[in-house]
Write a structure and sequence with these properties.
The protein is α/β, with parallel strands linked by helices. It contains 12 helices and 13 strands. Mean pLDDT is 85; it is low at 4-10 and 57-72.
Length: 306
């Protein structure tokens, strides 16, 4: 992949290593995306440039997502600086504005984003490149370990209002929601609600960042929220917050890979139709055998048949 990108040849011993990386980055595509795909994008970039990046600690956290391995030089930090994260909706806006060449996002474009692309005269090429899953979260002190989809819809449509109705203690349910532009909210509406209207959440139940459900549920034993598996498992592991089973199946890499978990969600690469160059090279490479191995190496579940 690196050899296919323009301007990425040369002998590293002929120039300062950091200067060489800067030159490489000038010819690499600008890759934006969802908050949950930041580690994938950074680690893929490290791999493409053959720079020794690694996870710092046992899991990702906002202040320590990627760090160079012990003994390596600061080039890895250059990759962090050149990997943009605007969030799902913001990444689509960046792509349409031409400030990103490729985006890797947690969902396909919404009707609103497709309308904006049409108004801008921009075609979009959208393809799945990995698997994730949509998950529900509760405080670890909640004895409820799983829900059916019908029960989830009941909670978020206001038909079920107490945990005792789904096998828990008698306690009012606090159903946290995400903002309308978030990838999580789009997945909730599409994968779970299926046209059933959600209750209007008061301000204190509306969360505007991916960290929100984890922060809220770390102390609220009556709450329920939602996110995506990769973020919950690797980027924001909160010891007080647990993922629920859905229809009797617990979300895990194995159940996402074999499709037994009912809320599998694809991760998409998107670019402007007709664009070429390094963005096209990266876009096509992600579905090669090598690209799928690299995606698996970041912790995501590769596609069963790319």
């Amino acid at each position: 992949m690196l050899a296919a990108l323009p301007g990425c040849g040369g002998d590293p011993e002929e120039s300062d290593a950091a200067g060489l990386v800067e030159a490489m980055l000038a010819d690499l595509p600008v890759v934006d995306g969802s908050t949950s795909t930041w580690p994938m994008r950074v680690l893929l970039m490290c791999g493409l440039l053959d720079i020794p990046c690694d996870w710092q600690g046992e899991a990702f956290a906002p202040e320590r997502w990627v760090a160079p391995r012990e003994g390596s030089s600061p080039e890895a930090r250059l990759i962090e600086e050149h990997t943009v994260t605007s969030g799902t909706h913001g990444a689509y806006e960046s792509l349409l504005a031409g400030s990103a060449d490729v985006i890797i996002v947690a969902r396909a474009p919404s009707d609103e984003e497709l309308a904006a692309a049409d108004a801008a005269g921009v075609g979009l090429e959208v393809r799945p490149v990995a698997r994730d899953a949509f998950v529900f979260l509760v405080h670890g002190g909640n004895p409820v370990t799983g829900l059916t989809l019908e029960q989830v819809r009941g909670i978020y449509s206001g038909q079920i209002v107490d945990w005792a109705e789904v096998g828990g203690p008698s306690r009012p349910i606090q159903p946290y929601q995400r903002d309308a532009a978030s990838g999580s909210q789009e997945l909730m509406l599409r994968l779970v609600m299926g046209g059933v209207p959600m209750i209007d959440a008061p301000d204190w139940l509306m969360l505007y960042a991916m960290t929100g459900p984890f922060t809220a549920l770390a102390w609220d034993e009556a709450g329920i929220g939602y996110s995506v598996y990769y973020y919950a498992e690797f980027m924001q592991p909160e010891s007080e917050v647990v993922m629920l089973g859905v229809e009797g199946v617990v979300p895990a890499a194995s159940t996402i890979a074999d499709g037994t978990y009912p809320l599998v969600a694809e991760v998409f690469a998107v670019m402007r139709a007709g664009d070429g160059g390094s963005g096209r090279a990266l876009f096509d490479w992600l579905l090669t055998e090598e690209g799928q191995r690299a995606i698996a190496g970041t912790g995501y579940v590769p596609l069963p048949d790319p």
